[in-house]
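Input (structure):
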């Protein structure tokens, strides 16, 4: 009841009393959670859809990191963008995909309300979660640092130094018009 003035009280309706009580708020919250669980149950992506979306997201990640490595902030925003875009078809990434598929293994795990994609390789034999499928869409958590794209020895023998890959010097070619610079034609300067 709520006072209208000092002498009379106005009675609240049963629904307003229910929604203002703690038990009523908990029941409404439980009902909303139950509806979301039912929707999640019926909108779990299929294995084929999950595999196709994750393969496309992996191709996009490889293309984004082809020339310049992305940092954590770039990867975060790229992962937000990836469910709504597709990989560039003009980019020839067959070699990179072959290396990825040789060194990494992507497994799809089905759960009751969602699906997960885990990436297994020699860097993370227990697997790293790289994506989740819920409410009919696949949300990637890809990071290029999780991929194993090279293989080989890190050391020669025990207690040797780590093998550093030699950096090739860039050949800029020959320029026949190139000659020593002399200030105002004076060879001594």
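Output (sequence):
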């Amino acid at each position: 009841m709520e006072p209208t003035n000092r002498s009379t009280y106005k009675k609240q309706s049963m629904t307003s009393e229910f929604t203002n009580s703690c038990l009523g708020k908990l029941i409404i919250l439980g009902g909303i959670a139950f509806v979301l669980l039912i929707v999640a149950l019926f909108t779990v992506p299929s294995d084929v859809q999950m595999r196709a979306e994750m393969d496309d997201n992996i191709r996009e990640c490889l293309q984004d990191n082809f020339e310049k490595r992305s940092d954590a902030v770039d990867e975060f925003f790229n992962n937000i963008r990836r469910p709504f875009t597709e990989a560039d078809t003009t980019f020839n990434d067959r070699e990179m995909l072959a290396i990825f598929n040789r060194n990494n293994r992507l497994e799809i795990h089905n759960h009751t309300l969602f699906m997960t994609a885990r990436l297994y390789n020699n860097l993370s034999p227990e697997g790293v979660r790289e994506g989740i499928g819920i409410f009919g869409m696949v949300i990637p958590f890809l990071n290029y640092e999780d991929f194993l794209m090279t293989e080989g020895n890190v050391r020669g023998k025990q207690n040797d130094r780590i093998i550093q890959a030699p950096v090739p010097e860039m050949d800029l070619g020959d320029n026949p018009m190139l000659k020593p610079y002399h200030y105002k034609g004076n060879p001594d300067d």
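Notes: The radius of gyration is 30 Å. DSSP finds five helices and six strands in the chain.
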